[in-house]
Amino acid sequence: MSRIGKLPVPFPENIEVRLEGDCLVVKGPKGELKMNFDSAFVSLEIKDHKIIVTRKDDSKAAKGRHGLYRNLARNLVLGVTKGFSKTLEIKGVGYRAALQGRTLELNLGFSHPIKYNLPEGVDVVFEEKSQTNFTISGIDKQLVGQVAADIRDFKKPEPYKGKGIKYSDEYVARKAGKSVSKKS
Question: Count of alpha carbons within 13 Å of 145, Cβ hemisphere only?
Fold first, then answer.
């Protein structure tokens, strides 16, 4: 039995959870999320304000999906109650970002600014008086993480000066530059 999969997912009273065939629908104060699951391997059940995931058999595929669907259900509940966020930092001389409607404009030292259209369900908030630190937030954990990864991919942090876009909790291993040798 999966250690994670056997744990029930509790949800508060103000959240509506229902099953529609092979789809789990979770509706809360921040919005509504849906998740399709593979009913050939696992079954979901809602009982006493808990979502219970059970696997149908002991096949390798069913064991692999047991903990997966439990955590995906947990992410739906957390998303509609609290939401998810990722904080990014831009480092470099002249590097900055600005929000124009639903488009994030990034100046990262290229000959042109990069324009990134934000998908629905994702918001960007800049820290006070800062053009270099911003938070990406939304109710869908996968979408928030994907948007943060896409923005980071425009200019990953380099190890010599640390210039680029990095997560706020990311450590960039720094390298020493070239050393000048003395001729005797």
Answer: 5
Question: Over the stretch 95-106, which tens digit does the pLDDT of each residue have?
Answer: 999 999 999 999
**Residue 27 one-letter amino acid:** K
What is the pTM assigned to this prediction?
0.88
Q: What is the pLDDT of residues 24-52, one digit of tens each?
A: 999 999 999 999 998 899 999 999 999 99
Domains, the chain, ordered by start: 9-81 (3.90.930.12), 84-167 (3.90.930.12)
**Interatomic CA distance for residues 160 and 141, integer angstroms:** 32
For residue 170, give every residue at least 6 positions away whose Cβ sits within 8 Å of its Cβ, in sequence order, or none: 157
- Alpha-carbon distance of 126 to 82, in angstroms, equals 19
Instruction: Name the phi and psi angles at 69, rounded to 5.
Output: -70, -30
Q: What single letter denotes the amino acid at residue 144? A: V
